[in-house]
# Entry
Amino acid sequence: MTDSKYFTTTKKGEIFELKAELNSDKKEKKKEAVKKVIASMTVGKDVSALFPDVVNCMQTDNLELKKLVYLYLMNYAKSQPDMAIMAVNTFVKDCEDPNPLIRALAVRTMGCIRVDKITEYLCEPLRKCLKDEDPYVRKTAAVCVAKLHDINAQLVEDQGFLDTLKDLISDSNPMVVANAVAALSEIAESHPSSNLLDLNPQSINKLLTALNECTEWGQIFILDCLANYTPKDDREAQSICERVTPRLSHANSAVVLSAVKVLMKFMEMLSKDLDYYGTLLKKLAPPLVTLLSAEPELQYVALRNINLIVQKRPEILKHEMKVFFVKYNDPIYVKLEKLDIMIRLASQANIAQVLAELKEYATEVDVDFVRKAVRAIGRCAIKVEQSAERCVSTLLDLIQTKVNYVVQEAIVVIKDIFRKYPNKYESVIATLCENLDSLDEPEARAAMIWIVGEYAERIDNADELLESFLEGFHDESTQVQLQLLTAIVKLFLKKPTETQELVQQVLSLATQDSDNPDLRDRGYIYWRLLSTDPVAAKEVVLAEKPLISEETDLIEPTLLDELICYIGTLASVYHKPPSAFVEGGRGVVHKSLPPRTASSESTESPETAPAGAPSGDQPDVIPTQGDLLGDLLNLDLGPPVSGPPLATSSVQMGAVDLLGGGLDSLMGDEPEGIGGPNFVAPSAATVPANLGASMGSGLSDLFDLTSGVGTLSGSYVAPKAVWLPAMKAKGLEISGTFTRQVGSISMDLQLTNKALQVMTDFAIQFNRNSFGLAPAAPLQIHAPLSPNQTVEISLPLNTVGSVMKMEPLNNLQVAVKNNIDVFYFSTLYPLHILFVEDGKMDRQMFLATWKDIPNENEAQFQIRDCPLNAEAVSSRLQSSNIFTVAKRNVEGQDMLYQSLKLTNGIWVLAELRIQPGNPSFTLSLKCRAPEVSQHVYQAYETILKN
Amino acid sequence: MIHSLFLINCSGDIFLEKHWKSVVSQSVCDYFFEAQEKAADVENVPPVISTPHHYLISIYRDKLFFVSVIQTEVPPLFVIEFLHRVADTFQDYFGSSNVGDTLPTGQLSNIPWRRAGVKYTNNEAYFDVVEEIDAIIDKSGSTVFAEIQGVIDACIKLSGMPDLSLSFMNPRLLDDVSFHPCIRFKRWESERVLSFIPPDGNFRLISYRVSSQNLVAIPVYVKHCISFKENSSCGRFDITIGPKQNMGKTIEGITVTVHMPKVVLNMNLTPTQGSYTFDPVTKVLTWDVGKITPQKLPSLKGLVNLQSGAPKPEENPSLNIQFKIQQLAISGLKVNRLDMYGEKYKPFKGVKYVTKAGKFQVRT
# Structure
């Protein structure tokens, strides 16, 4: 006999028949009737008329019948609230039934009846059930509290159910604990400010015990709850991690991902020196990879999360490239995510494999995917320099296929490759020009036009090519029009004789016949430039361009850190904080990673550099992942840049928008902001005189200035340099320097308001850095800063902030906020501000330490053109806390043995050889952390030459 | 958590809906249909869709969409895993025609995954070690990517509360494992033994992944030559399958599936063995090969007719291979012994091995 028979009676008068059967004396008949009623209900027939008759069947010992009646009640109670009260008595009775299954069933059903009228009758039975002797009843009751809270929050609070629920976290039964956590989490979501889940080490211990024994769904709730806890120190963090790690082997992918979240978050607190840290990194890879063998929907969510994890800790999956290779029958949404992760993991070590794969993908059927694959090849070229040549030849192969959209994508990315590696691959221009006619997408056309304009001198018929575009000028998109305008102006400046007519034509088209203000503005600026000062025009328009950055779509570091806290949630799928999309922003509290417990050793153990970031003596010109793009460029580029190098790396990335500041409007829609630096140059030429400091390069300002203003007492103080030019910060200009006086470090800032509006609400924050520099007090600017006003302020610093190794080591990333916006810049601090006053080492100790440090840690430098004698050198260095431990005279040379200590306890020993009459000194440095040597040498240079 | 659930069939009918808190109008599914329209293929509908007031998280199983409506920030994997369980349950329930007339009763037991008072006249414990090879083989026949996805499925019919220990000859192979909650993790960590009180009936004991490339043997090779001539409406098609590292076992149940390019009108082929079909609508070629006998390797040769005048296809189709090898776990995993504690009787025990192709693709 099957249940299907219940669904077959569809005769007329059925309701009456059922009514009679329900009131029958025979138990069997009653049960059959209720089954028929339920069957009718599930197919959508209205059997609510039978409510009293069905409820009458409720008083029975038969569990099966009771379940059926409860099912009916849940469905119709809402539409028949008055009659539902009839059931209350039975509920109360059932809650005291000797059978725990019946008690639980009653309390579960009560929670599902969402009728306001009867909820208050349910409080007493619920209270009893919460304290029931049977865990099965308690765990069911716990969930019921959350359901009740959804209907009537006030009632639940007044009845003290929340406290009872909190007590259940310490219950002896793991299922009860899990359900209590689940209920509290759900309630807490609508009460973000309540401290419902305030955890302490004892409750954490309870949760961790319950974690091993409760159901998979309970584990997810417990893990998510654990992730909100902040351990008091690294030891506690480690012990929690150890107990969470077994969850990585769970068959339920949601459990795995929640465990990953807890580990990723708490790892932040562990020192990288710990063996355990390395173990944990290794343990994280296999479960993440395993997620990729699940159903495609799970894969998608997993991949979105892996994308975040790869950005935060590339080392976890750096050897797992192959699992991200695309299978032809993967759903498109999985393919695109895999591709993105492949690029993020691409490095010199695996680039050959990656390129072979990408080339394979570029011949697939799906157009979107093919486009992405072609773009990916370009991104590889830009990310991994060694692969650029192979990427270019791969792209050329693809252009040969003549498949229209492949060619267009290829041209767009080749343009970026030209930007990144100027004067290297221009030989391919001829091939590109052959495909000019087939380009019909604005982005590809704009890219091609840029190439023609940029290399006009090498393309014989550049004028003809550009002229051909000009014919349909008004039908082009703005992007193409702007590009065409710039390209023709470039062409004119390069070949003025033949192209005068052309440039006049485009200027008039842009300025007189266009409705687009961006286009008109740009046209006028060019026009005036060309007519007033052609030489200046050349300098502006043909200025050397800043390099573009490798990663254009990295998530901004603070957002990334926040998203890591949301692994496994919708936020991680959208890569947005919940405040950005959860309806009404209700229940959203910003989460942040716990700070690493500062350990004096941590700087000595260099973090593995992110994949693909070359490490050499020269600071790298391309910022590594997570750096604040433009500002590093600004600092590191050095003198040969004409005009201030700007952060124009990309317009796609959020952070750059902030940097772009007021330039955005000038740059218009231009894809990579080529016009940007050009416009700014003239103003820069006039600025330096007023500022007393060149805007060119922070490095030269810090170290090469010859007009010393060094003080005799206290460490050497470099003159203030401009750190944040006004045009990058909507009118706020910041210059500054670092000082160290009697043991305290400060950052001396000069803030100038060059905007037209008043600035208020200043605040400052540092990113984690190599030596844990952090503001010791908030930035105190009491009065608002009116236009053209300047304020000087000294910000005291300490070295107890979070530590993260930076590249270069003395790089400091700063965020300054005011009422207008948040601005980011980075600067290099001279290392001598970190030399502490008690850095004088005992002689014996010095000798022993010198021998003890291996020779490969010794670095030798030359200090040239220093006219001082040994005495003067010694006393000058001493004022900057470099102490002379001993002095010897060997064969007419003065040997100074010196020691210094950094704020984090690292000792540096030095031997300075001075030959009387020779202005060149030889400096040998020995240190257990050899990476500081270069910077200590720079400090010597700075102190001695000023 | 999940606010409402809609079940939608392939023709877009919402044939079942369930609401937990309040009723959400069916019209919310329009956002889903919109996404479905955009996706070329049903499989390509994104699993998470955002709408102005809700999030739709869906799975696609057995030609049905399970679309859940979410209103708060939740772990999507929680929802997706849950939906898959719902689908599993439906499959269990409706899959068998014989539905009992007693509704299942949740029974209390100290072990949440096992009923108390289980009784059998024949006490049996069977384990199936099933390994699937996922691989991408490139044009030249070298392996781009290969890994083994293995599972051990158990069918346990043992009375009382048996406590089992399963040990392996070579447990070191298993370094990336997902366990059924019944397994004692500590024992595994310290002794590499699976110790557990089993659920009653069929369940998946562990799943594991062996990815170290040198451990993954590729049991078959495919020689292929698929070419389309420029400016001609035909092409050549020729594939041959042979055994490679098959550990001396017979490879059977071989099927080759190829998604031919759109411009292919028809195919005129001759198999030396088995039979083939070509569906001119979906452009899918299926060749049911059967067994490989090394003396005479199966091949499929012939002509491809293309739409006349259409340009020659750019993309080369990938071959999807299915096969099966009985009595072999390709990773070399072997069960050593099964011990039972806690009960007095002597159970009947058995282990079966089988290796299959998972996502096994050969690029041409």
Remarks:
- The two ends of chain A are 100 Å apart (CA to CA).
- Confidence is low (pLDDT under 50) at residues 598-712 of chain A.
- Residues 346-438 of chain A form one domain.
- The first helix of chain A runs from residue 14 to 22.
